[in-house]
Amino acid sequence: MSRVDVDRGGLTYTIDTLRDLKAQRPAAELFFITGADAIEQIVRWKDAEQLFELAHFVAVTRPGHQLSLEGLPADRVTMLEVPALAISSTGVRERAASGLPVWYLVPDGVVQYINKYGLYEGPHA
């Protein structure tokens, strides 16, 4: 858990976060865990070629998604199969924006935070 993105403020990119974390802990080996669908898009991220120098990426499988690691450095990306749990951050945000419950999809504290601050409500949702 880190506050580097919160403390930096403004628009933030993964490359910025990884650079900050590496500066804070130069000897640490960083791991970036993300969904299999996102790992395939990583080549389009800001400064994508440098991401793999800063962290090892772990692509977690998602139900119904065929993972392709083509074009990604094999020594810097690992696939991790997890039991089928069809929960995505996009789906959680869409449910919250539609007024549907997200209990049991995210920790209780996250549900309370969403409700307290009215996240995903209104025209900006």
Reading side by side through the largest sheet, how are the strands ordered?
A: 1-2-3
For the record, give the distance between the C-alpha atoms at the N and C termini, rounded to a whole number.
26 Å
Give the uncertain stretches in residue-range form: none
Number of strands: 3
The total of helices stands at 6
- Please indicate the percent range of residues in DSSP E strands (runs of 2 or more): 5-15%
Label the overall shape: globular
* Element pattern in H and E: HHEHHEEHH
Main structural class: alpha/beta
- Average pLDDT metric: 85
The helix content, as a percent range, equals: 25-40%
Biggest β-sheet description: 3 strands, parallel
Supply Rg.
16 Å
InterPro entries: Cyt_trans-like, NadD/NMNAT, Rossmann-like_a/b/a_fold
Domain Cytidyltransferase-like: 17-95
Function: Catalyzes the reversible adenylation of nicotinate mononucleotide (NaMN) to nicotinic acid adenine dinucleotide (NaAD).
Pfam family, one: CTP_transf_like
